[in-house]
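TA notes. Do not distribute before section.
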Amino acid sequence: MALLSPDFSALAALEYEFVEVDLTHEGENFQIMAHTTEIGYDLTVKGVSRPLSVARFSLDPDAGNIKAIELENEHYREFAAANSSHPVMQVINRLPTPMFLGLDRRPRFTVDERRRFSPWRYPKAGRHAVGPAHSRSLIDAADLAATSNRDALIMTGRISDELRRELLLSLLSVSPEDYGNIVAPTSEEVAELGQIRKDLEAFPAIFKLPGDEVSLRVRPFLDALQSAADALPSGLNPQDVFSDSPPDQRLIAALVRWSANRSQLKRIRVISEVVAAYNERRRALQAPIQKYQALVNKFLCDSGKSIHFDEDGYIYVNVDGVVGRKDITSLSSGEAQIFVILSHLSFSGAASQANLFIVDEPELSLHVLWQEMFVDSVLEANPKIQYIMATHSPSVILDRTAYCVDISRKVKRKKENSRPADNEGFDFA
């Protein structure tokens, strides 16, 4: 992870003499290596002759803990910016980067630490077993989901403005009509009446109008046209009706009623088409948000919880039987773990590109049923990512043994150079 990022701070803090990662990307093999030196470490890439020498940050003993962290981060940020054009960095930057969520799943009851990292809109919400790093990841994930939702709301508002403009223009558009022409409805026009009713159902929500008022103004007209169409046989020739002796007055009345209102139907059809296009665009904008909520809530429903977005687009937790909205930090450690992972997979910019997602022991803090749901859920959240999981849980693997590499068996074989016993345990990765 540190080599692929590259995370200069982590490479300086880890204990090693030499570390290497091999990977294949788009049919090309890459080797990224680091070995320690007296002042820090050298970062090298196979095929690049010049190493990138990194000096380890020297801690000022008089600086406080938080100040020291800030100074260290600034030191490596400046180093990365200054060496962005180095051949080693150019190669690494072309490779997909694993997503690192900073999940700290060790139980800790450190409320003050969590509060320090929480933005004002996510206030302190009581004690729970989430360490500061995990809480920070939780807040970041909530911000990520809320930002994506607000972006969708903004775009929905823009297309709503476009809809109003198109509707006004369509109402002002007047075309000459031959009002003396008597015609029978076509099968396509009759079928279109039902679609128009369906499209216009969205009007009240779009324009914040009472649904009964919209229905009162539109339904009588559509009902009259539907009644006229129902009274006319399919494939009817109007000339035959008028040539009959005596003429069928019921058919003539239906033909006249349909023909007289047909021009109005055309105008409503234009409105219906504009609304249908709007609904399609709105559904496309809301689909990722709705899929994300459904995935997360599929896990949370066991404890009577669910996530929602408020009127301003921010995320909150609803608990069955509990009055009021709960903060996202009220989630348990297992719930928070699921929330963070699915939020990043659904909305992270890195996850929108070809990338690698590494999860070590995803079964930690997860109920057995959740372990069984985990792989399908992350694949549904983002099917474009390559996933690598290290797990000891058969509930995570289920019937996916074809995708498993048994590391313990390989290590055992290499060490003993013999076939493992039938009762030997497995560590799946």
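Switch to the second chain here.
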Amino acid sequence: MFSKASGPYARPPPMKVKCVGKHTAERAETYEMVDGVVAVKTSKRVATCALCDGQNFVVAHLKNDDCDQIDDNQSYFIKGYNISQKYGNAKVFFTTSTVVYKTSDVAVSRDLEVQCRHAVCPPSPVYQTDVPNWTAVYSTLCGRVTSLSTTRLQNTKDGDVPVRNLEVMAGSNKYEVALWRDAALEDVTLSANVDITHLHIKKQKDVVTFNSTTYTTIKKSEMAVFTEEVEVVGICPTPTAVKILTANMEEFSIPPHVWSGDTDKIILELPFKMLVKHTEGVIESFECPFFP
């Protein structure tokens, strides 16, 4: 059992533990706007480790150089650390006095190993649109991005943080997803097939929405080619492509090598329908009588 120090100036006793699960990440601390784009201003390297003595485990939260002191599947004697029981869960933090010694292996049962690894990276089952699992703490949403906002800074109690809103088509349903902090800076494009893990579900008046968490990752599948008929209601020529807006408020772009011409004449024909073949919102070819 892991225990706190006996007095205000004492350290907890040395512990012999094995690291059973480690997750390392670069975590942004502050953000700024650079030429209208949200960027990371300062960041730190963090690691979460499950340290097990063979009977119980405790989660250690490390940062920067301390992340290199612990490796997964290695056993240690650790001295001079701090332990906190805040919110009822024991957490270990390293100090400038912490010393880490490699030692002989600590035996850990399979069941306890699973608990340790889940403490570092909790399960995130796929959200089933037909049979939702409301008891799951985290859920993974798999689908196609049908709309996305620009990333903006929003004021919170922790300062300004980035947020980006997506709409994901999963099965026959569309869901709104709010990406916060580092997740909002991920490279996500229109029409991309994505698996967004470790989302919190919010249900209000039968409307289901999702919010990212510190565990959230975004995995993009191989780029799929879609062919569909769209109704064009807006056209925006830019130096790099011609952007079109559909009646469903989806955006597509036509690269110059696919078509470049006089958009003023085409705008006079709005709205109109066109058959497009596209990958992640970039049109590869199209059929429309109004484009010369």
